[in-house]
């Protein structure tokens, strides 16, 4: 009895002791300020595949982001509390986890969701519950108007596709083959990739879908199909795991060799460091596109701290930080800033705002009171994070520049950047500070597959039995080179000429049979469709597989098509009238003009007089009668030309004068001899520069000949255009003085044909000039 009473007393005392501190604590709370107030807690759900390297990296970065943010902002009145769920890489598992977090966890935001199908499921759920969904999905189809509460914290892939199209266009490739992953996400993205190429007038030669479960033999069959088409430019958009299998087979199949071009999207390149070394070896020479993360001290310090944390976790095999972890870090900072802006007085627990939330009656989901405000504040956030400038535009992370990488050796080498504002550049520039770049010259030197520095052509001739379409010009004035004749009765077309014979001989010498047909460049009405430039451009447009004819290799044409090695002489020549005045008996006077002749005569006389003045007092040979002295002076000066003077000089001063005179004579006679020889050989060409020069009206596109002529001092008003060889003969026969010309400028092959067919009455000859033909 006493024992029981003692126990009651002890319990009563304990209760009193426990209640006293609580009363004291309540009084202290009422008497003190809010400096000790516990921050208002906001719950954030995290749904990741924690079994994957990417998921583990993102989760570790999210945890570090919360720790770093509140260490810097300890005065904030709000705090994020994480509620993590493992989706195990299953979309329905992610949906189930989201329902649990919304119903039981009472979360105000969700982050994670690496797959687009997960993001779309939860985007619908987020719209009903007014809960922002921060997704790592890269699907460009998720618009902010369709899913207003879905926020993509990765760069928009449509911007990446635009960059890839610009790169392909910069190398003048007009066809590409797209190889993509045969999944819902891959099929969903494909139209956006195709549209980007079509905007640049780039054709899709083939679309190859490869399933993630495809065997090596099935992948090999797909690659074998690509060998049957001419295109050698491939764009690969697939996960790193499937891309690894693909490129090992590509290397083994011989398609990672010279002449091929492979472009890999950021779906693989963002996780490049997770690839096996054998895969990296198979990628030698490929180009990769990767999201650009600018280097900074903050990023360096964070990477070092992250590695220290990761090395403590033995479950994480890959120890390299990826871009998704960096984006996740910045996203948490943005979300924490948004929560703080929403305010500490906003109730964090949402159980009184939600009723009836379950997986069956989704229509009963109540609307979050802070969801709209939180989303609006999140969209206003803008700061400089680890990934650079962080800002959400149209429900997606604002696109920064893309890195263009060349995969060489054991890693990758940056060769340039692409951005929507500056285009292709070697360095990054602030927006609008540089002219938009669209040329491959804006990139560093690229080592292509096969360790080649030569840019791939983008196509390769395949011997698949296809009949080649060979275009032939019909407007050539020289039928000996190429001629197209049409029989009006049988409607058959006959193509002949030296160029055609050379082409037939070359094709016949191939070790395999190639079928081809000649197609005249005419319309349905039989009329010519355009100039030689238009004809060569048809090859670029793939209307023809090639063109044969008297086509000059010019710079403007070389930008679009390739040429064979010339099989005729290359260069520009002049057809000139043979000089008819070289039989003039006074031609020996022409090397020197009148003034120079007078000056030379004066020097003769002056030299003889000076020598006479010096030698006359002391030398008997310079004495005598006046007539004898005049004869001696004249004879001495002229005999010095051939060193035949007989008078002996006694004075050293006179000898010095004669030495100077002999040296002057040597220069004068050498110049005279060279000039006279030139007059007897190329005189007419020199005269032609002062007279009229003719040229073909289609020569280099007509007016393009005039700047070339000006470079060699032919004046515009001295140039006359002609349209046929017959007009050449008539103009040359007349000459400049009779309304014709003294020379005709044309290409060497045309000149040779013209000389072969010209009448013997016209005296012609050819001067050849070889040089680069500019457009």
From TrEMBL:
Regarding the membrane, this protein is recorded as: Multi-pass membrane protein
Q: Which InterPro entries match?
A: ANF_lig-bd_rcpt, GABAb_receptor_plant_PBP1, Glu/Gly-bd, Ionotropic_Glu_rcpt, Iontro_rcpt_C, Iontropic_Glu_rcpt_pln, Peripla_BP_I
Which parts of the chain are coiled coil? none
Q: Where in the cell is it found?
A: Membrane
- CDD domains, per database record: PBP1_GABAb_receptor_plant (cd19990)
Glycoprotein listed as a keyword: yes
Asked if the keyword Glycoprotein belongs to this entry, the reply reads yes
Q: Name one GO biological process term.
A: monoatomic ion transmembrane transport
Tell me the leader sequence span: 1-26
The residue ranges crossing the membrane are 596-614, 626-644, 656-680
Q: Which UniProt keywords apply?
A: Glycoprotein, Ion channel, Ion transport, Ligand-gated ion channel, Membrane, Receptor, Signal, Transmembrane, Transmembrane helix, Transport
Domain Ionotropic glutamate receptor C-terminal stretches: 469-775
A single cellular component GO annotation = membrane
Q: Which family does it belong to?
A: Belongs to the glutamate-gated ion channel (TC 1.A.10.1) family.
In UniProt terms, what function does this protein have? Answer: Glutamate-gated receptor that probably acts as non-selective cation channel. Glutamate-gated receptor that probably acts as a non-selective cation channel. May be involved in light-signal transduction and calcium homeostasis via the regulation of calcium influx into cells.
Subunit relationships = May form heteromers.
State what protein this is by name. Glutamate receptor
Source organism of the structure: Ilex paraguariensis
């Amino acid at each position: 009895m006493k024992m029981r009473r003692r126990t009651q007393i002890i319990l009563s005392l304990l209760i009193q002791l426990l209640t006293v501190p609580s009363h004291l604590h309540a009084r202290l709370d009422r008497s003190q300020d809010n400096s000790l107030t516990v921050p208002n807690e906001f719950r954030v759900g995290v749904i990741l595949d924690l079994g994957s390297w990417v998921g583990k990296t993102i989760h570790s970065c999210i945890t570090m982001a919360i720790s770093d943010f509140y260490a810097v902002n300890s005065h904030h009145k709000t705090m994020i509390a994480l509620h993590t769920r493992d989706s195990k890489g299953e979309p329905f598992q992610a949906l189930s986890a989201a329902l649990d977090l919304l119903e039981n966890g009472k979360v105000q935001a969700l982050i994670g969701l690496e797959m687009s199908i997960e993001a779309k499921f939860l985007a619908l759920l987020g719209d009903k519950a007014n809960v922002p969904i921060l997704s790592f999905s890269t699907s460009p189809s998720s618009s902010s108007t369709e899913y207003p509460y879905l926020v993509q914290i990765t760069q928009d892939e449509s911007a990446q596709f635009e960059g890839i199209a610009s790169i392909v266009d910069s190398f003048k490739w007009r066809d590409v083959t797209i190889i993509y992953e045969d999944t819902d996400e891959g099929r969903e993205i494909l139209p956006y990739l195709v549209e980007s190429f079509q905007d640049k007038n780039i054709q899709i030669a083939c679309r190859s879908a490869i399933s993630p479960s495809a065997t090596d033999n099935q992948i090999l069959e797909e690659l074998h199909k690509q060998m049957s088409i001419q295109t050698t430019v491939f764009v690969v958009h697939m996960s790193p795991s499937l891309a690894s299998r693909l490129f090992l087979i590509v290397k083994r199949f011989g398609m990672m060799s010279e002449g091929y071009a492979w472009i890999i999207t950021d779906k693989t390149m963002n996780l490049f460091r997770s690839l096996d070394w054998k895969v990296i070896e198979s990628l030698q020479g490929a180009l990769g596109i990767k999201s650009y993360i600018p280097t900074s001290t903050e990023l360096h310090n964070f990477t070092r701290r992250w590695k220290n944390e990761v090395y403590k976790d033995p479950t994480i095999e890959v120890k390299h930080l990826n871009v998704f972890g960096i984006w996740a870090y910045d996203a948490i900072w943005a979300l924490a800033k948004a929560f703080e802006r929403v305010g500490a007085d906003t109730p964090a627990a949402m159980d009184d705002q939600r009723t009836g939330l379950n997986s069956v009656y989704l229509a009963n989901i109540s609307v979050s009171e802070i969801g709209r405000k939180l989303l609006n504040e999140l969209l206003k956030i803008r700061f400089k994070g680890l990934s650079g400038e962080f800002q959400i535009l149209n429900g997606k992370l604002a696109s920064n520049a893309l890195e263009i990488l060349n995969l060489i050796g054991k890693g990758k080498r940056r060769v340039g950047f692409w951005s929507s504002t500056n285009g292709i550049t070697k360095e990054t520039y602030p927006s609008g500070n540089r002219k938009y770049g669209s040329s491959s010259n804006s990139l560093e030197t690229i080592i292509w597959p096969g360790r080649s520095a030569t840019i791939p052509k983008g196509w390769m001739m395949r011997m698949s039995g296809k009949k080649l379409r060979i275009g032939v010009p019909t407007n050539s004035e020289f039928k000996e080179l190429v001629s197209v004749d049409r029989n009006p009765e049988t409607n058959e077309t006959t193509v002949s000429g030296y160029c055609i014979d050379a082409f037939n001989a070359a094709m016949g010498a191939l070790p395999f049979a190639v079928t081809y047909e000649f197609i005249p460049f005419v319309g349905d009405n039989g009329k010519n469709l355009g100039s030689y430039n238009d004809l060569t451009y048809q090859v670029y447009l793939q209307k023809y597989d090639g063109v044969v004819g008297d086509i000059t290799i010019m710079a403007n044409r070389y930008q679009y098509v390739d040429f064979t090695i010339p099989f005729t002489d290359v260069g520009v020549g002049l057809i000139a009238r043979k000089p008819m005045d070289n039989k003039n008996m006074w031609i020996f006077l022409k090397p020197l003009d009148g003034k120079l002749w007078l000056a030379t005569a004066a020097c003769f006389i002056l030299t003889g007089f000076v020598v006479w003045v010096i030698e006359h007092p002391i030398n008997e040979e310079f004495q005598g009668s006046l007539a004898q002295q005049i004869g001696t002076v004249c004879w001495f000066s002229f005999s010095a030309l051939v060193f035949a003077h007989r008078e002996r000089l006694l004075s050293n001063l006179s000898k010095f004068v004669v030495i100077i005179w002999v040296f002057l004579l040597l220069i004068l006679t050498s110049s005279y001899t060279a000039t006279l020889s030139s007059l007897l050989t190329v005189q007419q060409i020199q005269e032609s520069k002062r007279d009229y020069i003719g040229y073909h009206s289609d020569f280099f596109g007509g007016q393009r000949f005039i700047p070339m002529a000006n470079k060699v001092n032919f004046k515009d008003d001295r140039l006359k255009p002609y349209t046929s060889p017959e007009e050449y003969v008539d103009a040359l026969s007349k000459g400049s003085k009779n309304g014709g010309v003294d020379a005709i400028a044309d290409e060497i092959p045309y000149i040779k044909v013209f000389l072969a067919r010209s009448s013997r009455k016209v005296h012609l000859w050819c001067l050849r000039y070889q040089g680069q033909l500019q457009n």
